[in-house]
Write a structure and sequence with these properties.
Blueprint: H1 2-30, H2 34-126, H3 130-143, H4 150-163, H5 167-176, H6 186-200, H7 203-216, H8 221-231
Helix pairs in contact: 1-2, 2-3, 3-4, 4-5, 5-6, 6-7, 6-8, 7-8
Length: about 240
């Protein structure tokens, strides 16, 4: 708006300047007395003033043009700078993708290594290398405490103790299976606990454990064995 006002003012000054010149020329042609000479002198002063103001207007317009040019240059520079930053932002996104993939790959490798470690311990058990298997399963349980295979590791530790006739240690290991709510070894662990109690000679605890199997895992294979065990117990009539 300031620029337009300055331009309009300049045009008006130019028009006034031209009119003053025409008037001056007309008056000069017919001026014959002193009064008119004074008028001519006054008009010359007015023309000089108008010319000065017109020159000032030119200077103001030039300054405004310079300011406008500088402002436009800053705007363009800002756009260029912003557009130049976009590839850097995209580059950050590109860098994050491989990192995420590496994390996923690390998890896959860790799970694969974890399964391989468990499988080696189980193979040692099947081959009868009980001492080696016990060490490997214990190490697995210590290192992978939150693994989906840790409950199985405790179960097989108990089975090794059973083979070594260390029944009390076996009961403790089988009980560790129930530390993991997702375990699929619950019924088998209870059956082994009942067997350990039976080996120790604690028939009452063995009977209670068989009954627990029937109550908690009624459709399991362990329940069939527990039912068979309970059916063979002689019921002593009360005196």
């Amino acid at each position: 708006m300031d620029i337009l006002a300055s331009i309009e003012e300049k045009i008006q000054l130019k028009i006034a300047f031209m009119v003053a010149i025409l008037v001056l020329l007309g008056i000069s042609a017919c001026a014959t007395d002193e009064a008119m000479q004074r008028d001519v002198s006054n008009l010359k002063q007015q023309v000089t003033e108008l010319n000065r103001r017109a020159t000032d207007a030119d200077v103001q317009i030039e300054e405004l043009n310079n300011r406008l040019f500088i402002l436009q240059d800053k705007i363009e520079s800002g756009r260029t700078s912003h557009q130049g930053a976009l590839p850097l932002e995209k580059l950050k996104v590109i860098k994050l993708v491989p990192k995420g993939n590496n994390d996923n790959n690390d998890k896959v490798v860790a799970k694969s290594s974890e399964q391989a470690e468990y499988d080696r311990a189980f193979l040692a058990f099947k081959e009868g290398r009980l001492t080696d298997s016990l060490k490997m399963f214990k190490r697995f349980a210590d290192v992978h405490q939150t693994s989906k295979l840790t409950d199985n590791a405790h179960y097989w530790i108990g089975r090794i103790y059973m083979e070594q006739k260390e029944y009390r240690a076996a009961v403790g290991s089988f009980m560790r299976v129930f530390d993991y709510p997702w375990t699929n070894k619950g019924a088998d662990a209870l059956l082994q606990i009942a067997t350990a109690y039976e080996k120790i000679g604690n028939q009452l605890y063995a009977q209670d454990t068989w009954q627990q199997i029937l109550d908690i895992y009624p459709v399991s294979e362990a329940a069939k064995i527990a039912a068979g065990k309970l059916s063979k117990i002689k019921i002593i009539p009360q005196q």
